[in-house]
Amino acid sequence: xxxxxxxxxxxxTDYADDYALLATRGARIWVALLVLALLAFPLIASPFQLDIxxxxxxxxxGSLSLMLLTxxxxxxxxxxxxxxxxxxxxxxxxxxxxxxxxWITLPMAALVGALLGVIFGLPSLRLxxxxxxxxxxxxxxxxxxxGGEYETRRGFSTGIMIDPPRVGSLEITDxxxxxxxxxxxxxSTLLIxxxxxxxxxxxxWRAIRAHETVAETLGxxxxxxxxxxxxxxxxxxxxxxxxxxxxxxxVSVEAFSLFLTIQYVAMVIVGGMGSLLGALLxxxxxxxxxxxxxxxxxxxxxxxxxxxxxxxxxxxxxxxxMIFFLLLEPLGLVGMWHRIQNYFRLWPYKxxxxxxxxx
Amino acid sequence: xxxxxxxxxxxxxxxxTAHIAAAHAQDAYVIGVTGALTGPSSGTNxxxxxxxxxxxxxxxxxxxxxxxxxxxxxxxxxxEPSKAATNAxxxxxxxxxxxxxxxxxxxxxxxxxxxxxxxxxxxxxxxAVCPKEVYPPAQALQFCTTAYAGGYxxxxxxxxIKGAAAGPVKLGLVAMAIPLSRxxxxxxxxxxxxxxxxxxxxxxxxxxxxxxxxxxxxxxDADANWVFSWAPWVTQVKTFEALRRLAWxxxxxxxxxxxxxGELARLKDPKLYVIGANSFFQDRxxxxxxxxxxxxxxxxxYPAEQMTEGWIGGLVLEAALKKAGxxxxxxKVRTALEGVSVDTKxxxxxxxxxSKENHFRARQYYRFYRWDEAKAAIVQAKDxxxxxxx
Amino acid sequence: MTLLEVQKLxxxxxxxxxxxxxxxxxxxxxxxxxxxxxxxxxxxxTLRAISGFLGLDDARVSEGAILFKGEHIENELPHRNTxxxxxxxxxxxxxxxxxxxxxxxxxxxPHGVGAGEQRRRETLVYRFFPQLRDLRHRIGxxxxxxxxxxxxxxxxxxxxxxxxxxxxxxxxxxxxxxxALLQRLREIRRELGLTILMVEQSAPVALEIADxxxxxxxGRIVLDGTAERLRSHPDxxxxxxxxxxxxxxxxxxxxxxxxRRRWYG
Amino acid sequence: xxxxxxxxxxxSPLTSDLWHLSSESVQLVVNIIVLAAIYALLACGYxxxxxxxxxxxxxxxxxxxxxxxxxxxxATLLAHHPIAALIxxxxxxxxxxxxxxxxxxxxxxxxxxxxxxxxTIAIGILLRGVIVLVWSASEQHPLxxxxxxxxxxxxxxxxRISTCAALIVVMTALVYGSLFAFLRFGRWGVRMRAAxxxxxxxxxxxxxxxxxxxxxxxxxxxxxxxxxxLIALDSGLDQSMVVIGLKAFAPALVGGLDSLLGALCxxxxxxxxxVLAIHYVDPLLSDVVPFxxxxxxxxxxxxxxxxxxxxxxxx
Lengths: 359, 390, 265, 315
Known about the structure:
CATH architecture of chain D: Orthogonal Bundle
Oligomer: heterotetramer
Number of strands of chain D: 2
Number of domains of chain D: 1
Radius of gyration of chain C: 19 Å
Strand order of the largest sheet of chain D: 1-2
Order of helices and strands of chain C: EEEHEEHEHHHHEHEHEEHHH
Shape of chain C: globular
């Protein structure tokens, strides 16, 4: 994993240790506590807070998949919202046309995502960086266009309504149920990503991100691995879209604007490139922050009196927060965390010698 | 940095909880509003919410209803479905409002309707296009005060054109590339055919358009002598202006959105008609005066003539809550709404009446305005004409 | 007085990795001083520290001082130092690839300089490097290695330097070209009375032209002295000039050298 | 015109067809030129910033819109001195560009390009909010505020063009002409190109990068604002301006992000394909077409018409 060996030395005695996800006792304890907290949350949370938590999990799934693509395989994509839309529309269309249950729609969404992944990935064989980003952006518009056409042609002028998924006889509508479903979804995505990154392809992606030509000379099949990255990331994203469709109970193109993509890119960067933890932190930050600002503003005395002004402020405030964050910490939340780690690890020394620099 | 952020976040969270606690504590009619106060469509959806707030403030100042104040909890959804969904959830489950009012783009309807169904709380569309669920047979929870109404608008417009046109009508149609507008224009095309008008061209224009001339060029080359546009005002007026710049001299009719009165005065074009259900402020009815000085007092940032939609919403709200009495709950409000009959004081052509199966209105009244060069003022091209809703 | 003085300089990359650890230099006016050392010894970093870092280097002088004519210039921006008369000829990317040769020469001329002065400098440069005059309209990217190096030097001279920092003059150039360039450098220095600090991997080249030299290893200075002294120094002879000094040395002696090196640092 | 054509039609179909065809096609050409001019004027802003700092300024749309709103503001304040209002607005827009760089983007130099781009996006969000805050979201009409009118002028062959549209075309020609001259012969122009190719060397050659970047930002904002003002004068001013600005980024890329000439040609290609799509295929396509063209270009020649190939590896 990305975390460097512990400061006090390198104590791993066999290869199994190298592959262990939770290297130390400390780590295990922390994770256990975290899990407990997550399980306890619904008991104390209000429905509104639950809703936000669910949004965070949904965003988490999406941002993890984007991190896989951008943060590890180094392929910048601005087609994320398009892929989410694809997943959601797969559900919507299948539900409307064939009334399929989510046992069918979810895998189909994943499949569609994978197919689109190939298409989105093709430009990456020739393009890099900004140019790749733009080509994926173009594809986003194509997907949205198609979705919009479907909506209009079938006369769903206010979006496609979707019944809540039913397991056996009971419908899943309760907020708590959704909380746990999405929590599981996010957690399993995290595990999938963790394991992917420890496989051959995971290493190949990092090599490609580090230096494409070098990776090629090392005998890594660039094209195949790039496409693989796109396919996997896209199918996860599409599933996220499908979950969104079920959770919200509707699909409509307006829900997948360019702004959504921007939000996801923001999550990845605010969280910190090349870190799954970062992806999750970013997802939480970007999802929750607007509500925090809004809440703070609404709590002002007589806030409702000048609502329309207030919300303009709220809108601008999000921009301000983003700017300040990027200016103060371009490496993201995780960068901040690593700086602190570094400080304690090297204490009382200030700097690592150049010799030990390349770990 | 991080500590500062944490501190800020913590403070804000506290603030939220405090705010919500407050919402629960006071005994008042708690009404939830979610609208597109910022973002693309705020120009259309902002003013109604503003006006509603104005109206409610005046009610509260006058002692509220049944001796209770009305508390409006207004949230902004930026016309984003997900945001609207969260707002609805928050208003319904946390502030537990007894009525939800929506003034936003149609894309936000699906999630909000879903939430209101889940919570079994009535939902009132105001200054936002009426969904088909409010027409008879209406769905239990959805009501609509908005002036414009799919289907009826086209019918009235085409009847007007038929009446006003001298020779054969060569109709040009203009929609914005959003499902709603397209649907209505398609309907108009169908109907025009049955009425023996030939539709020579139909333009569906995407919302962000740098230059409307190419679209206008097609309409002109198609040789249309009447153009009907049922779309957000921007699309309607920009297409019209582009046509005029191409020296197209014929008649253009669009829906009279809240901007219409000001815009007619700006454009001063005798062959530009608007069809609407709200009377213009130039009629100077008492109610107009009332609104105008309320706007002046509260120093609202939108002009008075854009306040009508929200004001009507206010009238309905007041009537409904009076009927519902105190203590109130969602169920009572719903039953109250189903029996509501509001005198619109001339803001509309007639009263706004709801029944169990009709949550739109019993009769829809239309009036047509245009600019008159001789009088140098806006004049009625055709006074109130009623259409039975069934 | 000394023109440039570097005291206990420490440079840190990425806020955590230190590349240069407390080196000190002193350069007298009109001197040619060479910095020797193997790859990663921190020579280039030192040079860059003197010329100044950019934000995108994410490097800074964390300790020590750099004095130019007694004025502190550590962590100063490059263009300011250039205005002071400290001009660097970098190791790579030394010309503007999509500008013509003449544009390459015009670009550096500071804002204050009038057209007349500019023309004077151009003629001067073309006198030193007549080849460039013929290549005037060629795109910088299409020049050969030798021509590039000339253009780089020429561009530097257009900034009217007092202290010229030259990084790896000989890198990737044929010996003939190198000696020609060195010859040119001597002339320039004689005519303009420049001071030159050059970083070199090939000790023979450096010691051929330099008056004084420092040897760097692992971010420290381990040896310094006049060119003659270093040329005759056994370790230099063995480890840089690669000459066999009499009988083969035993492993112990080599270890001794390494230890000595550590003490110097 | 059209009625005339109609009457001809009764008389002799042949001539009327010819007449119609000509007037129609001329109008088509005019429309293409106008749209292309709009795109070109907006696109050069992207190019200017990209070629010096490799940053894609996603706030360009908002900055252009802000320029237009500034004009509206000055027009309402200086009601009786339209020219003064124009001048003040232009100066303010330049100031805005410099400000954005000095206060915000300056700190992003040398950071990860993606982070820099995201910063510009954030700036865009902020600006949108501020504009709603100050001017509300309802549509504004600077033309009236300035007390100008926008009569439509006849072009040969029965086609017409509005004064402001004509102004846009002229302005575009002016802006591009002066930009070309500046970059080719101006000393600052050469410095700008140098800084774009190798910022480090440029700095070591005594070029003040911050000055260069600030210059680029101010020029970009200036051109963008001019575009915004003229569009607003021609057809009113509201939030949709943002999207127009964003759309103009397709032409910039089609032409090659680091080439002004490219931006010009890209604008022509995208503009004409858009107008032709509207006229002959389906108006709905008009907001997809630019991106279709873009994809086509990216598959055939990713670095754009006149872009330099190295750019691909640079970013």
